[in-house]
Specification:
Elements lengths: L6 H13 L14 H15 L8 H27 L22 H25 L20 H11 L1 H9 L4 E4 H8 L5 H4 L3 H11 L7 E3 L3 E4 L3 H9 L3 H86 L4 H23 L5 H132 L12 H12 L9 H10 L3 H25 L14 H10 L16 E8 L12 E8 L2 E8 L6 E4 L12 H4 L8 E2 L1 H10 L15
Antiparallel strand pairs: 1-3, 2-3, 4-5, 4-8, 5-6, 6-7
Helix pairs in contact: 2-3, 7-9, 9-11, 11-12, 11-13, 12-13, 15-16
Amino acid sequence: MSFEDNKSFWEEFIQLYQENHCLWDIKCKDYRNKQKKNAAYENLINKSKEMFPDANKKFVIKKISSLRSSFRCQIRRINSSKRSGVGTEDVPEPTLWYFDLLSFLMDQEESRAAVSSIEGNNLDDQSQASGTNFIRCIKPNNKMVDHQFDGSLSLMQLKCSGMISVLELMEYGYPSRTSFADLHSMYKDYLPKELKQLNPKTFCEAMLHSLKLQEKDFKFGITKVFFRPGKFAEFDRIMKSDPENLKSVVAAIKKWLIKSRWIKSQFCVLTIIKMKNKIAYRRKALIIMQKTVRGYLVRRKYGPRITILRNIRTLDSSLKKLEEIASQLKQKASVVNEIDGLKSKMASTMEKIKLDDKMDRKAVESMYAELVAQVNQQMASLQKKLQEEKIAEEQERLRKIREEMERQKKLKEEEERKLRDEEEHRKMKVEMEARRKAEELERKKQEAADRLLAEELHKQQEKLEQDERKYQEQLEQERQDRELALRLAQETNGQVEESPPLIRKSDASRKDVNAKNKYDLSKWKYSELRDTINTSCDIELLEACRHEFHRRLKVYHAWKAKNRKRTVTTYEDERAPRSVLESAARSAQRTAQQKVAVLDNNGQRYFRIPFQRNNNCVDQGKRGWWYAHFDGQYVARQMELHPDKGAILLVAGKDDMQMCELSLEETGLTRKRGAEILESEFNREWEKYGGKPYVRPADRNNH
């Protein structure tokens, strides 16, 4: 912050400084009183803290010196202008705004300047009168009081001014002296140009060493050279001798320069090597000293702690033993927590010992003793628990032996049961094969009977056609007779009696068939059929509804196949393998009057045959399976498994449009060798792909 800022503060500061005369008035009686001056400085410090909170005595003295220095410079400018003889109007005006405020210092600055100028003039006059070449000004005391001599202060000033060295030279017999520069300027005109360019000190050394003067006849100082009595005159005579002698002197000087430079180069190299070695040696010595001292201090401070920390780390082996014992326990959760607590406590103790520098040795040892006691206590507790668990394990082992014996017994019984089941399955398959053969034999017999019946029916059909022709001829004859009778009646004005129409034998036979059926479901809606199948408990009605429902499905699928575009061949709508559909097509050629005697309408039968839905050449090698569960004559559950697709599970009453609508006899599955499977095999695959258990329609109301 400059004095231009906040002028009001600096005005108050200067005013306070003016009031304390002991700080600036050398005529004041308290000017040498340190206590008064310190008190005055305290007042200025308190004032400065209003603007500078960190102000101290050094800061105040610095500011006062800056003010007085600026004021002193202004006074010097003014006084120099006055001494130069310029007019009053040419005297420069003060540029400091606080110049007038410091006017009380004017007499202090003038008195000091007058004293110094008088003393300087007296010294000049005395030096010129005595012919002395140098003058040493000595300050006898720091208080600037006359007739008071401070010996140590004067000796220090003489040492600093070089007077001691001068006296020593005079004591050793070197009264004559001259500076290097004077000697160089005195004799450079006698030497060639390359020697003139040498610096004064090198010039003097080269001349003195090359003139065959002895080393004891002269001495070199920092800025001067000193001679014994008469040697300087000899040197002057040699330098001012004839030119021939001077040439030899110049040659000697050049030779000495070359030699001295070479010696100096060697000395510099050796000095550098010595210095490098000394620096390396001192560095190593310093490192050793630092290492030794620091090691001693660290060992003295941290030795006991390191010992305790090492002992605490040895407890890790005990903790590992605790963990091994805990791993053998069954209920080890609480024990592991306790061991973890010990670990955390050990870690916290070690951390506290490392960080707390104020902890003494007794506190560290007590903490270690506490940890050891806890570890020993935990070890005893775990060993006791381990012993108890060993006893319990022995009892458990005996119990497991008994259970294993019972399990082996059950396994043996289970194996026997499986053998019985396998035997039963084998018998069932034998029965299924026998039943298939019986059905095949019955089918052959039925086919033979069907052929005979077909021939009989053919004959009956021919007879019916002949009767139909006769009936039509009779109807035509009756119509002609009636028209003739009507014409005759009109002519005679009579009336004709209406005769009842003739009844055909085919109509009579159809009425007889309808009369034999207990239920006529041809006019029922699909929703009525579905609800009846799902809710009714009447077995005969259920069977009639199922026959009617599948009859309608056959009609729908036949109509759909008939009206499908002939150019489009798709296999996505196949509801059963093609072998099943082809078998149904062959069975459709049989007469409608044939009856099945072998099949049971209430039986549950299961079949599995290969199924390849897509006949593209790409998928020729990929074959699926078609599973069917027949409840009586019709499919109750249907499942398709393909290699590259998910399983398709269909249930009757929900997915009828996608299921096979053919009856068991129409599919011809009973005549396929190896097609029929057991119920367990079907249910295993059905449940494997998420199928729900099957409930028969007659039993659904009970669930």
